[in-house]
Design brief:
Blueprint (H helix, E strand, L loop, with lengths): L8 H7 L4 E3 L7 H4 L8 H5 L5 E5 L5 H9 L4 E5 L3 H13 L5 E5 L5 H4 L5 E7 L17 H10 E11 L2 H13 L3 E6 L14 H8 L5 E6 L3
Parallel strand pairs: 1-4, 2-3, 2-5, 3-4, 5-6
Antiparallel strand pairs: 6-8, 7-8
């Protein structure tokens, strides 16, 4: 079922257009769409050359806002494909007056159309949809087709940080990352009962933890 547009969605999107990049004429075939580059001038957008971190699937923006607030020397770009959702994230950002956070409305398949190679210093994958049925495995954000996209936009030394409540998705991610040439570190099978510090608890994470579900976390990087 297609989600209905929020009331006054167009007006609300217009009101946050200074921090939101939207492609109005996106080719629905991402294989051909990414061939025509429309690179965002990130340094101009932010007004500096600070490292850029990417959150893919930002939801309502809680994590992105909190991370950007605590890391003023890092530029954060939060990505979300649903206009109904990203508008709330943008509005939260503006209400909190977060200057080092911007947004891109697009599906992850299109990232390399808009982001230059070797320009992202870190990627966050927080509670991505696990697509539990095997026939939808290619839609998982840690499947091989997405990992190859990330590798092309990641700068040397960049890392991916993933959190999920889904054990099978986590096992799948470890397998796919390893096959794609990533090294893994700081793997946790129960994040909230570990000694990991400075964890930003997302909306979904709080909900899952309250149900007594373990939170899985890892970091992955390409060795140099």
């Amino acid at each position: 079922m297609r989600m209905r547009h929020k009331k006054h969605l167009t007006e609300r999107l217009d009101a946050v257009s200074d921090i939101l990049f939207v492609s109005e004429h996106e080719d629905r075939n991402f294989n051909t769409a990414v061939l025509k580059k429309e690179y965002i001038d990130i340094s101009k957008w932010f007004g500096n050359n600070n490292p850029v971190f990417l959150e893919i699937g930002c939801g309502k923006g809680g994590f992105a806002v909190e991370y950007a607030r605590g890391h003023r020397d890092i530029n954060v770009i939060a990505v979300e494909k649903d206009a109904n959702v990203i508008v709330s994230a943008c509005e939260l950002c503006k209400s909190e007056n977060i200057q080092n956070l911007k947004f891109i409305k697009c599906a992850a398949e299109y990232l390399e159309k808009y982001i230059k190679p070797n320009s992202i210093s870190g990627i966050f994958l927080n509670f991505s949809c696990p697509f539990p049925k095997n026939k939808y495995a290619s839609h998982r954000l840690t499947s091989s087709r997405f990992l190859e996209i990330y590798k092309r936009i990641m700068a040397p030394g960049a890392k991916i940080e993933q959190k999920t409540d889904n054990m099978h998705f986590f096992e799948f991610s470890i397998e796919q990352l390893s096959f794609a040439g990533f090294n893994l570190q700081n793997i946790s099978l129960d994040l909230h009962n570990s000694d990991f510090e400075n964890n930003i608890v997302t909306e979904y994470e709080s909900r899952f933890a309250a149900q007594g579900l373990p939170i899985y976390r890892l970091e992955a990087y390409i060795p140099t």
